[in-house]
Amino acid sequence: MDMQGNRSLAITQQQAWDALNDPAVLKTCIPGCDKVEATGENQYAVGMAVKIGPVAAKFAGKILLSDIVAPESYKINFEGQGGVAGFGKGTAAVKLTPDGSGCTLDYTVHATVGGKVAQLGQRLIDGTAKSMAEDFFKRFDEAMQQTHPEAYAARDAAAKAAAAGEAPVAEAPAASGGIPAWVWIAGGVVLLALWWLSR
Questions:
Q1: Cis geometry, peptide bond prior to residue 71 (ω within 30 degrees of 0)
Q2: Residue 149 and residue 147: Cα distance in Å, rounded?
Q3: What pLDDT does 146 receive?
C-alpha cells in the first residue's frame, strides 16, 4: 500500500515538532491509540485498537525514527502485530516546508499488510487509512488550537485580510515561527504508521 498527502498548518515549526514528538499528544490524537511510550532514542512502542470492516483487533508495534533533520524532516520505520488479525510494516517519509506564516506538511507512506486484514480488499483498507488520517489531523488541529490559540487567530486574521483584498501585513507575527510541514506530516505519518501497524 502506498499513500501520500499534505496538510497546511497554522502553528510554528518548533511547536509542531514538539507536539509530534510528544507521546502524550500523539496518544490523544491517534484514533484507537492507548499507548505511545518511548523505549529508547527515537524509538517508541505503540498499542491501539483498530476495526477495518468485520475485523477488529488490538495491535502492538514499534516505531523507529531515522534520517532526522530537525525540524524539517525524518523517516519513520514501523511494524506491528495484531495476532490472527494480521501484521503490518513499512516506512513513511515526512517533510515540513515553510509557507507564509505557516507551513505545509507532506508525507509519503509505503506499507505492506498480511493476515485477515490483507484479505479485506485494497479499497476497504485504503478507505480506513484515509479516514484515520483525517481523524488524526482533526484531533491534532483541535489540540493545537487549544495549546496555541494565538497562531490560529493570526492565521484567521490574515485570511480575512486577504479576502478583503488588503495587504497581508498581519502575517508579520509569523516570524515567531511558520508551521513546519514536516511536523504535521510526522503526525500524519505516525498516525498512518500506527494504523498500518495495527493491521
A1: yes
A2: 6
A3: 92
Block residue for cell numbers 506564516: 101
Which DSSP string do the residues of the chain spell out, in sequence order? -EEEEEEEE-S-HHHHHHHHT-HHHHHHHSTTEEEEEEEETTEEEEEEEEEETTEEEEEEEEEEEEEEETTTEEEEEEEEE-GGG-EEEEEEEEEEEEETTEEEEEEEEEEEEESTGGGG-HHHHHHHHHHHHHHHHHHHHHHHHHH-HHHHHHHHHHHHHHHTT---GGGGGGGG----HHHHHHHHHHHHHHHHHH-
pLDDT in tens, 46-91: 998 888 778 787 889 999 999 999 999 889 898 888 888 888 888 8
Q: One-letter amino acid identity for 110?
A: H
End-to-end CA distance of the chain: 12
The pTM score is 0.70
Grid cell locating 2: 502506498
pLDDT tens digit sequence for 80-119: 888 888 888 888 888 888 877 777 788 888 888 888 877 8
